[in-house]
Structure formats: structure tokens, C-alpha cells
Design brief:
320 residues; alpha+beta; eight-stranded mixed β-sheet; two-stranded antiparallel sheet; 13 helices; 12 strands; globular
């Protein structure tokens, strides 16, 4: 399809140009990102094994990934996949902050927050531009959770690309509308993840609100591919307050909560610190706190302050 006399859409050109300016981003990465963003529903349904052509297309994609992608010969295949595509659990307040940024930011190599070798930058251009996208994971399922328009694409060039290439599946929304989606999904017991992908310019590009029954990342994680990272927080039960109602266990997407002797018990190994149980507990029986054993949290306002302070320190004149 031609646009303004050109074969390539404006958003595709912007995506390509941003890729050229991104370190460690190859032509194969761009083509992979183009495929992923333009044909998201085919890409995800094949990856989930839900598409009728899964058995044909999946081996082809894996072959091309091995041929042109980054060589991860020393890595376990599951970790190699997760190394390129991963989600960081973000509690509701931090998710709100991520969709409320009003200035371009560039924060590189967040190794302590995003403990992978690739795709660990936060580079947000026009972050006030947000698109709600029908979730490709839910759309791939025969009986998906509702509603489906719960994936939040944040900033350019991603928002422009999605709106131009997926006009029937996406719409531009305000920051306040994004917050309302986050709050509604949190109330349903679903988990907000900040997603990073190598093919998406090696950076953060979306907040997905995930349920374990539909989400492909949950499915992969449960099958041994470590795609999901803890928020850096953990929940714990105040046993003397707990009524043993079981609501927290029913809603926990990570299966980390059990009711034993009429009291909720949280497996610290399985808790990823989403905070859903904390807000669903009518008794106020669940504590939520930073847990150094779970890694550093993605606290965007703190990271922005640290980046500003670092720039200011570099600009300060040295001793005369």
C-alpha cells in the first residue's frame, strides 16, 4: 500500500530510523520487530500453539532466529528466549507512574532492575502518547478473559506504528484512561508487567495486564522459560488478622498462596510481588514490602531522578 507516494508507511520509517540509531540493533532485529508489531496476532497465536499453522510456521521462525539472531550457544534455550523478551512485574502504583510520564527519558543498561543481557533500556519518546491494544494473547484463546483491550503501548515509535498498522485493534488513549485500565485489571486480579523485547529496539515498549489462563508469558514461565521478573517486593500474611476467606488464593496468578488451617500462607519463592492480594484483602492482613532477595524494583520516578543527578554531576565544573 502506498502512502504519500512511498511504499513504506511513515510509522515504519520512524521505527526503522530509530533502529538505525539504536546500539546492538541489527537489520534482522528490525525485521523481527516489524513482523511482531504488524502481525502481532499471528505471531502470538503461533507462539502459543493456538494457530492452525503452528506446526509449519514455528519451526521456520526458530530456524531464522538461529540463523540470523544473536548467538546464545552457551545459554539454555529457554533462558536464551527469555533473554530477548521479558516482563517485569510492576505494582499498581508503579504502573500508574509509567503511564503518567510527561517528558522524554533515556535510561540505559538497567542490569540491576532487568537482570538480562539484552532489552533492558527505558527510552521513552513522546511518552504521553499511549495506545490501548486488544491483547494478542487473549485474542488467541477460544474463551478469553474480558475485556481484551488491556495492552498499553507507551511512547513512540511504537504507538504510531500500532495505530497505523493495527487501526481496528487499537485506539489512542489519554494517560487517565490508561490508569483506569490498569486499576480495573488490578481489581480483576490481573498482573501488570512492563515488557521489554530485543526486536522492539531493546527497550521497554508496553504494559501488559496479564492473567495466567490467557497470557503467553505466564504459559512460558510455567513451562520453564523464565520470562517474568519479580517486582522486587514480597507479600506476607499477618496470621492473627487473616480470616482464611481464600480470596487472595483464588486471585493469585502465580499460585503462590494456599489456605492452611484457616489461614493464608504465601510461598515466598513463588510470590512475584504484584500486590493484587494486598488490595483484595478486606481484612488488611497482607503486608507488602521491598525484598532485597527479589532484585531491584522498577521505580521510574526514582530512576529518572538518578538519571538527572548523574547528568548534573557530569556537567559540574571540576576543581580549578
Amino acid at each position: 500500500m502506498r502512502q504519500s507516494g512511498h511504499l513504506m508507511k511513515d510509522s515504519t520509517k520512524a521505527f526503522y530510523q530509530e533502529g538505525k540509531n539504536t546500539e546492538d540493533y541489527s537489520l534482522y532485529d528490525f525485521l523481527h520487530g516489524y513482523l511482531y508489531a504488524k502481525w502481532s496476532y499471528l505471531y502470538i497465536s503461533v507462539a502459543l500453539g493456538e494457530h492452525r499453522l503452528h506446526k509449519v510456521l514455528a519451526p521456520i521462525f526458530l530456524f531464522l532466529s538461529g540463523l540470523f539472531g544473536e548467538k546464545e550457544s552457551e545459554l539454555d534455550p529457554g533462558y536464551a528466549w527469555a533473554n530477548s523478551y521479558h516482563g517485569k512485574v510492576v505494582p499498581l502504583e508503579e504502573a500508574r507512574n509509567l503511564v503518567s510520564i510527561r517528558e522524554d527519558i533515556e535510561i540505559r543498561d538497567l542490569e540491576q532492575v532487568i537482570p538480562y543481557n539484552r532489552a533492558r533500556d527505558i527510552v521513552m519518546k513522546n511518552p504521553e502518547r499511549i495506545a490501548a491494544l486488544d491483547c494478542p494473547c487473549r485474542e488467541s484463546r477460544e474463551h478469553p478473559c474480558q475485556p481484551v483491550d488491556v495492552c498499553l503501548i507507551v511512547g513512540d515509535p511504537f504507538v504510531s506504528f500500532i495505530l497505523e498498522h493495527q487501526p481496528e485493534k487499537s485506539r489512542q488513549i489519554s494517560s487517565q484512561e490508561a490508569v483506569e485500565i490498569l486499576e480495573a485489571e488490578h481489581g480483576r486480579g490481573h498482573v501488570s508487567h512492563a515488557f521489554f523485547k530485543d526486536a522492539m529496539l531493546n527497550r521497554f515498549y508496553a504494559i501488559c495486564n496479564c492473567c495466567s489462563c490467557c497470557c503467553g508469558a505466564f504459559q512460558a514461565h510455567q513451562n520453564g522459560t523464565p520470562m517474568l521478573m519479580s517486582s522486587g517486593y514480597s507479600a506476607a500474611v499477618e496470621s492473627e488478622i487473616c480470616a482464611g476467606c481464600g480470596i487472595c488464593a483464588d486471585f493469585c496468578q502465580f499460585g503462590a498462596i494456599a489456605i492452611l488451617d484457616e489461614c493464608a500462607v504465601i510461598s515466598q519463592e513463588d510470590c512475584y510481588g504484584c500486590g493484587v492480594c494486598v488490595d483484595l484483602c478486606d481484612q488488611g492482613a497482607i503486608r507488602f514490602a521491598l525484598d532485597p532477595a527479589k532484585g531491584e524494583p522498577l521505580e521510574i520516578l526514582t530512576l529518572m531522578d538518578e538519571a538527572r543527578n548523574s547528568v548534573s554531576a557530569e556537567l559540574e565544573p571540576g576543581p580549578q
